[in-house]
Input
Amino acid sequence: MFPIKFVRENLNLLKQASESKNISVDWAFFQRKENERRQIIQSLEGEKRTHKEMSVELATLKQQGKPVDALLKQAKELSLVIKEKEARLAEIEKNLEEFLASIPNIPHKDVPLGRTAQDNLIVRTWGEVQTPSFEVMPHYEIGSKLGILQLERGARMTGSFFPVFAGKGALLVRALINFMLDLHTKNGFYEIWPPSLVNRKSMFGTGQIPLLEEDMYRLNDEDLFLIPTAEVPVTNYHREEIIPEERLPLRYCAYTPCFRREAGAYGRDTRGLVRLHQFDKVELVIFSKPEKSYEEHEFLVNEAEKVLQLLGFAYRVVLLCTGDMSFAASKCYDLEVWTPGLNRWLEVSSCSNFEAFQARRAEIRYRTKSGKTDYVHTLNGSGIALPRTIIAIMENYQTEKGTITVPEVLRPYMSGISEIS
Output
């Protein structure tokens, strides 16, 4: 969120940013409220000055023993007018504060202009897409055949898009989580296990609300939200704190379940694990000094890539265009793996630099050695999300005989099992 002074001085820049992100912002509303605010302030200044002069005159008249009733009545009436205008001014300033929360972050200068995913830029690829000598079953077919993915039971328990992993499927989920956490902690990330419910301030801090509130699961009685990603609690781990400069960068990892209503996505990816209401993810979050944040961004992407490389997937790194980025991001890379059963690339990780956008909303600062304070830059990325990673394993490691080979790096986490059959 941007300070109102910055908004007033950079209207054209912010208008361009919102248009490039395909996010509608009611700039006419802002101009109306700003004009009304200025008029009220100007009017109040004159009326308060007049009221002060009346008070002085009343005191003088009383000392002189002269009648004050008429002037006192005028002063009381003017006092009521001032109170009403002050109340209106407070209401306008609240409206403006709410408006500020609707302005998206400014894309970094390196982000390509574009409207949709078709305008994204492929930065690099890793590995070669293999063409199997047999017809690869989609993950939902082989998962059902092997009994490790039971979508129907999940639908009976809860509803569509709530999967059940069973037997070696459940073991595969647990293996992936432990493998990724071990990898990231060995590489210097500090593990935390945060709550899966957060309050409204936390959701606001990372930018999920108000824009995406309809996509969130919420406990209305307590105004708590089920987290859509560990980004929310982990970023808010330092909410309203000042971090000493010498501690930066701070790098965290966390495993959590994630919950999303996907209110705007009905009708897409209705089969299997591509789009779910509940899924598991290992998240990476970094707090950085501003001048180092884009170095940290590349470090973050490389850390997520290590997971895919060790799993042996062919993947590509994609720089998102302005129109395909999130509300809060300044720059974002997606990591996409190839899935031969679905015959498409699937995003398994998004790695974003939010610059100071989230830090301003969550009041996260750092103090320099000279004693000055400034907002940190926050970054986060999936390290990585499980459902689509499991799709990639089921389809890339599928054998002609209808089994799934366990990636070698996961076998120590699966009691040495080398094949799911």
Observations:
- The chain has two domains: 26-100, 117-420.
- The first helix runs from residue 4 to 9.
- The CA atoms of residues 264 and 383 lie 25 Å apart.
